[in-house]
């Protein structure tokens, strides 16, 4: 296999030092880490997503949206299981008029013939204008973006659609968009209390979401997890550095009445090294229908899904249960992000 020199060295740098490679002309070009986003950029994405949502309500609007990127093509390289992220990205592309290609199983690509990841990514870039990647390997999306920025003549954007146990920046974008919309009329995100519940050690969605929430003043975190799967130190250090308060606990019921949002997650047992998940009693991290009475009237419940038994189905009909809206928000927000990456976002603001 041909070696491309330099990625290991780049990969081992602190994240902050790597971020400039993922920007072009002052704008985000590759979406690899949640830490890339400034608060103003989040607010801009929320506005674009709101506009897209409104425009899509009419047939004229839908036709207009599908003309915005009809000259562009995207590649969905999703070699780790995905339902929502895949479908919402695919539909986001289609609603913007983009054509898509996909690989969903590594065994059907030339990787099995001994092709290097770099050659494979450069091959994708010969055919498309955007590559969206979900991979079990934490550094894969970063490596793809590095390859195209450093070695390829055709630098095209890469979006991380979930990188192993590390990050899921676009899930965090749709999660914070959902939270922002529900708190818009009640003082916004500043100062809100957020409970994150479940396997926080290996849950990439919560890890990315913490990074985004810490851009808002005084957001306070309650990390509710079994001791074995507690939030990792890198995130706690980042929150400390930014002055966000947090509490680590395994007493879910006790914090329910205090919080503005519950973000529930499942056990990430696909990352088990020796069946360690099977030793965990997850029952105390389940949100039951009877707990709805404990929640504040403006509090909300989110879950990135898939759900196993973390939230009883009886909870779904409560207006504070936002997870179905959250999944749909993913499509609007991803459309906003893709438009922004191609610099075409002003067109939705000009649509009469
Ligand atoms: C999450 C993921 O893949 O990290 N799902 C998603 O993208 N909506 C959460 C999970 O699998 O538990």
Q: What's the topology here?
A:
Blueprint: H1 7-11, H2 15-18, E1 23-24, E2 27-28, H3 39-55, H4 59-65, E3 73-78, H5 84-95, E4 99-103, H6 117-127, E5 130-135, H7 140-150, E6 157-163, H8 169-183, E7 193-197, H9 204-213, E8 220-224, H10 233-241, E9 246-249, H11 252-255, E10 261-264, E11 300-302, H12 323-341, H13 346-350
The structure holds N-carbamoyl-L-aspartate.
Residues 84-85, 162, 168, 171, 204-205, 265-266, 304-306 line the site of N-carbamoyl-L-aspartate.
How do you describe this structure in short?
With 352 residues, this protein is of the alpha/beta class. The protein has helices at residues 7-11, 15-18, 39-55, 59-65, 84-95, 117-127, 140-150, 169-183, 204-213, 233-241, 252-255, 323-341, 346-350, and strands at residues 23-24, 27-28, 73-78, 99-103, 130-135, 157-163, 193-197, 220-224, 246-249, 261-264, 300-302. The termini are far apart.
Considering the chains and any ligands shown, give keywords for the structure.
Rossmann fold, 2 domains, 5-stranded parallel sheet, 13 helices, 37% helix, binds N-carbamoyl-L-aspartate
Tally of extended strands? Answer: 11
Overall SS class: alpha/beta
Give the SSE string: HHEEHHEHEHEHEHEHEHEHEEHH
CATH fold-level assignment of the largest domain: Rossmann fold
Descriptive notes:
- The chain is α/β, with parallel strands linked by helices and 352 residues long.
- The chain folds into two domains: 7-167 and 330-346, Rossmann fold (3-Layer(aba) Sandwich); 169-328, Rossmann fold.
- The protein contains 13 helices and eleven strands.
- It has helices spanning 7-11, 15-18, 39-55, 59-65, 84-95, 117-127, 140-150, 169-183, 204-213, 233-241, 252-255, 323-341, 346-350, and strands spanning 23-24, 27-28, 73-78, 99-103, 130-135, 157-163, 193-197, 220-224, 246-249, 261-264, 300-302.
- The strands form three sheets. The chain has a five-stranded parallel β-sheet, covered by helices on one side. A four-stranded parallel β-sheet has the order 4-3-5-6, with helices on both faces. It has a two-stranded antiparallel ribbon with strand order 1-2.
- α5 packs across α12 (323-341), α6 (117-127) packs across α7 and α8 crosses α9 (204-213).
- It is globular.
- The mean pLDDT is 96.
- Residues 84-85, 162, 168, 171, 204-205, 265-266, 304-306 line the site of N-carbamoyl-L-aspartate (NCD).
């Amino acid at each position: 296999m041909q070696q491309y020199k330099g990625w290991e060295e780049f990969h081992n740098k602190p994240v902050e030092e790597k971020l400039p490679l993922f920007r072009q002309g002052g704008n985000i070009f590759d979406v690899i880490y949640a830490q890339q986003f400034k608060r103003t950029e989040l607010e801009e994405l929320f506005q674009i997503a709101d506009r897209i949502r409104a425009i899509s309500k009419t047939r004229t609007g839908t036709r207009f949206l599908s003309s915005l990127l009809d000259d562009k093509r995207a590649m969905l390289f999703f070699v780790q299981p995905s339902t929502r992220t895949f479908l919402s990205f695919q539909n986001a592309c289609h609603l913007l008029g983009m054509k898509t290609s996909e690989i969903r199983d590594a065994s059907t690509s030339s990787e099995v013939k001994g092709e290097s990841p770099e050659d494979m990514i450069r091959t994708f870039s010969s055919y498309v204008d955007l590559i969206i990647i979900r991979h079990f390997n934490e550094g894969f999306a970063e490596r793809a973006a590095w390859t195209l920025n450093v070695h390829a003549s055709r630098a095209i954007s890469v979006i991380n659609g979930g990188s192993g146990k590390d990050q899921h920046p676009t899930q965090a974008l749709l999660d914070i968009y959902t939270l922002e919309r529900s708190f818009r009329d009640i003082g916004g995100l500043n100062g809100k209390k957020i409970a994150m519940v479940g396997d926080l050690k290996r849950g990439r969605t919560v890890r990315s979401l913490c990074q985004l929430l810490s851009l808002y003043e005084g957001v306070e975190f309650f990390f509710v997890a079994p001791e074995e799967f507690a939030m990792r130190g890198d995130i706690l250090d980042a929150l400390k550095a930014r002055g966000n308060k947090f509490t680590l606990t395994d007493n879910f019921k006790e914090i329910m009445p205090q919080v503005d949002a519950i973000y529930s997650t499942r056990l990430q047992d696909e990352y088990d090294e020796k069946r360690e998940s099977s030793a965990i009693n997850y029952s105390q991290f389940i949100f039951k229908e009877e707990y709805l009475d404990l929640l504040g009237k403006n509090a909300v419940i989110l879950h990135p899904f898939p759900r196993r038994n973390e939230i009883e189905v009886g909870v779904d009909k409560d207006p504070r249960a936002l997870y179905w809206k959250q999944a749909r928000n993913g499509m609007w927000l991803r459309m906003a992000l893709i438009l922004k990456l191609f610099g075409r976002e002003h067109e939705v603001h000009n649509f009469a």
